[in-house]
Here is the input.
Amino acid sequence: MGEYAKLNGYEIKLGTCEDMTYIRREELAGANFEPMDGNATTKAAYLNAPGTFWRFPYPDEDGLTRVSEWQGRTMAARKLVLRAPDWELSEHRAVTVQVPAVGGDPVQGISVGMPCPMELAKLENTAPIQLFNTGKASQLVSPIAQKWMAPDWQYTVFACAFCGHWFSVDDEDILSLVAVNRAIQPEVCARLLGNSRGVAEVAA
Ligand SMILES: [Zn+2]
Here is the structure.
């Protein structure tokens, strides 16, 4: 079920159930909040619900807000894709590949479901599927959310860059991720480690 509220006078979608990745937690904390008809959830209840996934603070979205997007600006696409060191990830999901008909008619095309390339890479025999790597074969991940548990406890949730499967790792693994991705900024490292941008508990 979609979660909607009026922020600073604008009706916006916050997310779906505990997936509130449409908006940073700090933006909701600082916004003037009015509930929508039929939704009794208060701002404090949203902010203090353990297990909620909030939008990861992508650096290229600093200065943009969910509210400003609603006023006509476009929120930048998520661009933070990182090479994972040697993480043992499981539970990858099927990847859907759209194959349009020659000529480009999407209605006449087909959708093909195939295992995540990261799963296939672990198999010795991938026939009859042939993999054509467009780049150097490596495990790619993207930070997707900050999962808030308590005032001093939140952590980054990552997604497989191919199939989108969500997972989390410990701080030690995040530091190894930072070591592999040398171009990563210290500020981004702090955000990946989670707590530096946490918002203090909001009184109910
Ligand atoms: Zn995957």
Residues 196-204 have pLDDT under 50 and may be disordered. Residues 92, 116, 118, 160, 162-163, 165 surround zinc ion (CB under 6 Å). Residues 1-89+141-204 form one domain. The chain has two domains: 1-89+141-204, 90-138.
